[in-house]
Amino acid sequence: MIRAYKFLLRPTVRQTAALDEMVRDHCSLYNGALQERRDAYRHASRTAVRYADQSAQLKEIRAFDPERQGRWSYSSQQATLRRLDRAFAAFFRRVRAGERPGYPRFKGVGHFDTVVFPKDGDGCRWDSTPQDPQMRVRLQSVGHVRVHRHRPVKGRVKTISIKREGNRWYVVLSCDEVPAELLPPSGAVVGIDMGTVHFLTTSDGAHVANPKFFKAMAEELANAQRHLATFPKRTRRRTKRHRAAVRKVAKIHTKIRRQRLDFHHKAAHALIRDHDLIAHERLNITGMTRAPKPKPDPEAPGVFLQNRAAAKTGLNRSILDAGWGHFLTIMTNKAESAGRLVIEVDARNTSRTCPSCGHVAKENRVTQALFHCTACGRSANADHVGAMNVLSRAGLVLCDVA
Asked: Residue 400: its pLDDT value, please?
């Protein structure tokens, strides 16, 4: 089994400066390689430059600029070039599929935050021998950086990534051959229905409240962004006050993200601990949060009818604030490690189907919270009904597999 471990780094002042230089130089390499590909395509009869061509130039680049490029790990620079190659591969894949492609962009220093070392011991070594929580990771041209290891690392370390988040630095270990930590059977099964009023509702009728972290911090975030917008463009990134305003906005976003991540882990752990099987809906979150299409007025050219875009924007914000996709990913990974079973089922009409008589109708969903079957008259909470139908469909899936 593959697992990633993320630990906080505690570098010294000199090591922090070296880490900033490492990220800056890898960003420069990324942008230079992107510029070469753009120029070759535009001015050299649409010549395509591949990863192998750019990787072969690394030796000359390192010799030409030993102070900025020659001091860093060769394999980490190759990983940066592979990152660009994957960006172009994804771009052309979307073009061929007829999707809306996003051409790879140049990275600003503030938007290039990760350096990858493809192999433990090649430019970066994870020291796994000491038992002290304050371990160290050795980085080429940086030194031995202290690591706050809050849990043991199991398995074999494959790749090591150094990541910057705000003013903090982290090391991310990708390990394989990680043994599963099986939990004892609980004998319970559950279906869950995701929502925005309640984060989730179980088939047992329990509701997990939606903390709405973004909404709670919306006013503070709006004030910080409003203050940031007061700086004229000609002075941006030139004054300490502007940089402090940027850090303020980033700090609020970081707090929201950490609160949401902590909540997701705790909610997923509670479900995995108490149930052997967990069923959930197969959600197309990208489609659910897509903006409504404009409706031209056939009687007035250039005029558009109301399409409830404002209401849809509020719903999209609530869905993204809940973070359903992230939560389901965390729950699936935890279930794999614990030996639990997670099943996803078709989400259509789960809250419009009566669990008693099976009648399906749009009129069954009276309001957001109320379900009333027009055939048999059963009334219940709509989210509870959806969770019960999810669990019922999971049983049918198991029967089909068997």
From this structure: 63
How much helix, strand and coil, in percent to the nearest 5, is found in the chain?
45, 20, 35
Tens digit of each residue's pLDDT (9 = 90 or more) over 68-121 = 999 999 999 999 999 999 999 999 999 999 988 889 999 988 889 999 999 999
Instruction: Provide the 10 A C-beta neighbour count for residue 30.
Output: 20
Element holding 282 (H helix, E strand): strand 277-282
Residue 43's domain comprises 3-176
> Exposure of 270 by Cβ count < 10 A (0-12 exposed, 13-18 middle, 19+ buried)?
exposed
Looking at the structure, tell me whether residues 158 and 18 fall in a common domain: yes
**170 and 143 both lie in a single domain:** yes
Q: Tell me the per-residue pLDDT of 336-356, one tens digit each, with 9 for 90 and over.
A: 999 999 999 999 999 999 999
What are 18-65's pLDDT values in tens digits? 999 999 999 999 999 999 999 888 876 677 889 999 999 999 999 999
Shared domain check, 172 and 200: no
Chain centroid to Cα 45, Å, comes to: 38
- Backbone phi, psi, residue 116, to 5°: -110, 135
Assigned domain for 389 exists: yes
Same domain, 42 and 123: yes
Contact assessment for residue 81 and residue 29, using Cβ atoms and an 8 Å cutoff: yes
H helix runs in 97-230, sequence order: 213-216, 218-229
What is the CB neighbour count within 10 angstroms for residue 67?
A: 8
**Could you tell me if 264 and 368 lie in one domain?**
yes
Indicate whether 203 pLDDT > 90.
Answer: yes
Confidence of residue 188 (pLDDT cuts 50, 70, 90): very high
DSSP-derived pairing of the beta strands 370-372 and 379-381: antiparallel
| 199 within 8 A of 322, measured Cβ to Cβ | yes
